[in-house]
Amino acid sequence: MKDKALPKIFPASENTIIEVARTLMAIMERRDASLKNHCERVANNCANFCESVLTCSDEAVESIFIAGVLHDIGLIFLPLDILQKSGELTEDEEFLLKNHPVNGQNILSNLTCLDGILPIIRHHHEAFDGSGYPDGLKAERIPLGARILSLFDSYDSMTSPRNQPAGLSTEEALIAIRNKSGQQFDDNLVDNFVKFIVSTSDESEGWLEKKDKAIIRQIFLEILNNFKAGKIDAPVMPQIVQEVERVIQQATSSVDDVVRVVKNDPVISLRLIAIANSPVYRGVQQIESLNHAIPRIGLKETQNIVIAIRLKSLFTAKRLQFQSLMDELWLHVLACAYGSKLIAQHLKLDDPDKYFLMGLIHDIGKALLLKAFTDDSKSEFLNIGVVKANLQEGHVSLGVEMLKRWGFSDGFMNVISHHEDIEFSPQAGKEPLVIHLANMLTRNIGYSLFDNEIDLAELDSARLLEVDADALENIGEEIKKIIRDLKDRF
Fold first, then answer.
1. What CA dihedral angle connects 360, 365, 369 and 371, to 10 degrees?
2. Largest CA-CA distance found in the chain, in angstroms, rounded
3. What pLDDT does residue 398 have?
4. Segment 389-395 long-range contacts (CB within 8 Å, at least 24 positions apart)
């Protein structure tokens, strides 16, 4: 079937139209969540059907998707007692209900970019034999998009009725639709429709999310390739970090030597003092100078905190909608850093501060990827939830490349390479196991980009490190206290 029969949205308005559709869907959700969910399911099914079965062009698929999203927009002006009524409608109520396609067309008619899909919205309740409404159109006088939409709208209403406790099964609904082939529905579409529903097991993937995902993967791949090719400037490790590290590594260095380096950076100086006065490090007296802050924190931990303060500057995004994601990511790596140190201390491992630093940089690839991603114009209209879900891809390779440029040891790069592993062998080193376990622990305490809780005791990392559930629960509580006290001090 030729997709030229489906209208095409004006290409220059593509992103704007999607944003308008999302906004109107949010309005529908406020009015009636079940109405929004119905429109979303219908839109996804229509778009995937046109894409995979009718092999329509991208523009045509997008137009049927937008029409599906907005096809019931006219219902939002119905009184709620009619919209949510479960019993039989009166004649007057039926009249108001049947007028919703015309109302929808009128509501959207001021948006000239939607002109092409208005006939789909107006005629999605027409019947193939001419018995439908509002205009009693028949057969191919009904726009193709409206004929497709009619099938999926009716099917969803049968299987997921809004005001009834249960609907028809998939099999029952398909039988009902077959029985109305050539009457209510276009008999040229019904066979393909049935095959599509059966093949997708009645769970069609979100079309817009699928489209966004493809764009995101393309952008991420370009960023990774450009970074490796040197086309993206990599952030350099600030000089003060290198100076602090050099001084602390000298056996003869004193607190005064570290103070002389740190005081040259007033921002770091103030934040070190603020951190020293936090409940995490607080002693009897209020700290007012670096000379007292650094001994309280400890030389090695001072080095790590200086790195953390400077590293936080990488967790910024030009676009406001992505900054909240950066903030989430920062709290995650900070929680993972302290979690790694606490696990190392629990296991009495050498140099717990090294584990802190490993936890701090384990997701540096995500920060760099997201930072570069927000500079790409194609990312402007993408769904932030889809970006978040797909941020995993490519961040390990990018993180390893970054650590190479910063001169970190192979041990640190090994941690980045394996902190996302699912399975570990008994020969796995302690470092990747500790960071992996801390990384997973953040999910259960609310400091992760993922909100699914895990049975930590069942993880290979917990089993091989021999950390039991009670210990992990205690460490998790300690991390939450630390982050609550420190998150605004870096």
1. 30
2. 94
3. 87
4. 390/213, 390/216, 390/217, 390/220, 391/366, 391/449, 392/366, 392/420, 393/217, 393/220, 394/220, 394/221, 394/223, 394/224, 394/365, 394/369, 395/363, 395/365, 395/366, 395/368, 395/369
pLDDT at 11: 47
**Among candidates 27, 64, 23, which has minimal Cα distance to 47?**
64
Alpha-carbon Rg for the chain in angstroms: 29
CA 61 to each of CA 150, 195, 336, 459, 481: distance values in angstroms, whole numbers, following the listed order:
16, 19, 43, 43, 50
DSSP per position, 231-250: -SPPPPPPHHHHHHHHHHHS
User: Quick check: 483 and 335 in contact, CB under 8 A?
Assistant: yes
**The predicted structure's pLDDT at residue 12:** 42
DSSP state of 201: T
Ranges of H-type helices in 77-163: 80-83, 91-98, 100-108, 118-122, 144-159
Q: Walk me through the domains of the chain, giving residue ranges and CATH numbers.
A: 3-205 (1.10.3210.10), 214-235+315-486 (1.10.3210.10)
**Can you tell me which residue has the tokens 């302290």?**
338
Q: How far apart are CA 309 and CA 489, in angstroms?
A: 9
Structure tokens at 287: 């700290």
Q: Which amino acid is at 16?
A: T
Q: What is the pLDDT of residue 9?
A: 56
Question: Which stretches within 161-289 are classed as H helix?
Answer: 170-179, 187-199, 207-228, 239-249, 255-262, 266-276
Distance, in Å, from the CA atom of 457 to the CA atom of 440, rounded to the nearest integer, reads: 11
Which residue numbers in the chain have pLDDT < 50?
10-12
